[in-house]
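idk why but the lab printer keeps eating my pages so im just putting this in chat instead. protein + nicotinamide-adenine-dinucleotide:
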Amino acid sequence: MADEFDVIVVGAGPAGENAAARAVRGGLNAAIVEGNLVGGECSYWACIPSKALLRPVDLMGEVSRVPGLTLGPIDSGAVLARRDEAVSYFNDGGQVEWLDGVPVELVRGRGRLDGPKRVLVTAPDGSTRLLTARHAVVLATGSHAVIPPIPGLAEAAPWTSHEVTATKSVPKRLVVLGGGVVACEMAQAMHGLGAEETTMLVRGGLLDRVEPFAAEFVARSFAEAGIVVRTGVQATKVERPRPGGPLTVHLSEGPPIEADELLVATGRRAASDDLGLDTLGLPAGRPVEVDDSMRATAVADGWLYAVGDVNGRNLLTHMGKYQGRACGDVIAARAKGERDDLPSMRDVAGGYGAPQVIFTDPQVCAVGRTEAAARAEGFDVRVVEYDLGRVSGAYLLGDGYRGRAKAVVDERRRVLLGVTFVGPGVAELLHAATVAVTGEVPLDRLWHAVPSFPTVSEIWLRLLEEYGL
Ligand SMILES: Cc1cc2nc3c(=O)[nH]c(=O)nc-3n(C[C@H](O)[C@H](O)[C@H](O)COP(=O)(O)OP(=O)(O)OC[C@H]3O[C@@H](n4cnc5c(N)ncnc54)[C@H](O)[C@@H]3O)c2cc1C
Ligand SMILES: NC(=O)c1ccc[n+]([C@@H]2O[C@H](COP(=O)([O-])OP(=O)(O)OC[C@H]3O[C@@H](n4cnc5c(N)ncnc54)[C@H](O)[C@@H]3O)[C@@H](O)[C@H]2O)c1
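predcted complex ->
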């Protein structure tokens, strides 16, 4: 096996896989180094299992809104079994086959930079192999859950996203630390699958990066479902006398809470701590700063790139894959001395505001800027909102459908800066919004994109009418 490759990618998650595949498509050869399972967090401990756990909960909500249908209690065992199937029983054979087909050479082990264009791989058996890159090294190592320094917390061996998404059973009493996306999705999944007491401890506000009205819809739904959300309360100490036994969470106010499990969902940190960045004089444990072609800005000669969570731009699978495609293309172009500024070779989407779906019930999805962000950036902002429940297509989805949409308009150019939807099943509305925002489609043109009747997409017509068209 050769130890020199055109491109070496460290980390075979979605971002790394895409970077390698695009570089090969561009005529280079590539190796990908993976210390765990090919497919990364997303496939085994994040997007895929979390959505497999949420789907029945979502469906339960939908069915309960349609008269004439009844659904018995959720069989959590069957749901967990389907989750296991969705993560391929933690076997990455299918993904390895895909890599073989590209082809990309898989090198199993932990990769570490060892000076310019050198990656030292330590295999699971402890043996080492030095790989050198003719053109580029791409870091695609993802991120880790952060455990805040609360006395007793680390010692209590709390759950992170890894344990909750892979759980073999549903705890009766669950405390969730954090109010972000992981916290909300997983609190809802565990509660819907049978947790009897689910308490969220939220330092700031629930989902504090989305439009406030959308977070309020989620908070109301959680309250109705019996999920207790305590805002402005912090955990001050955790005690778990017996490993795996019940734990006590002491709070900044009020009596302590007893629980069977504690999920820590307080954000993520770039997986760059043990990557050998010091051998290049770069700081460890921080996102690797890159330009729009994914090239590390602090490295001379431009041979180092970083894609996905590790560059800290947007911690989302689709954005990491998009960056990976740009990165692979640009590396191939630069290696061949070809034009390296074609449209596919830059992260343009990130600048508009990445699309994201939060798979709670109701779902929240958004693209572009919130009203607050647009105003802070000095745009001439006008906002239009509409009640989704008043759209015929939404009414037909079930009784008591509740939802809302908000569009943030740049008045000077009459284009959309951002769109947010909240409501059951709104996820599939998002891509139209992404096209409108990223494509900077003028509102007067958007008017001619006629939504079908009776679909929820008629919200587009209503928003434009509210605007005055
Ligand atoms: C619970 C949860 C749910 C999520 N749901 C969604 C969702 O629905 N939609 C969405 O868009 N995003 C979601 N995300 C975010 C998404 O998982 C990440 O943005 C995505 O996985 C990042 O991809 P990546 O390729 O950058 O990194 P990862 O998927 O983390 O892959 C990195 C890979 O690098 C490997 N690695 C790390 N260090 C080394 C090393 N030194 N040597 C060799 N290999 C190494 C790791 O083993 C891993 O396989 C979710 C996250 C969580 C935690
Ligand atoms: N559906 C999706 O697209 C999806 C799903 C899950 C995760 N993700 C991505 O994964 C990333 C990580 O998600 P996350 O929810 O872990 O992080 P996050 O940054 O979204 O939320 C972290 C939460 O923890 C709170 N927090 C931070 N420190 C705390 C402390 N010491 N004590 C109490 N609370 C504290 C914050 O106030 C915030 O509510 C996000 O960027 C998200 O976009 C995406």
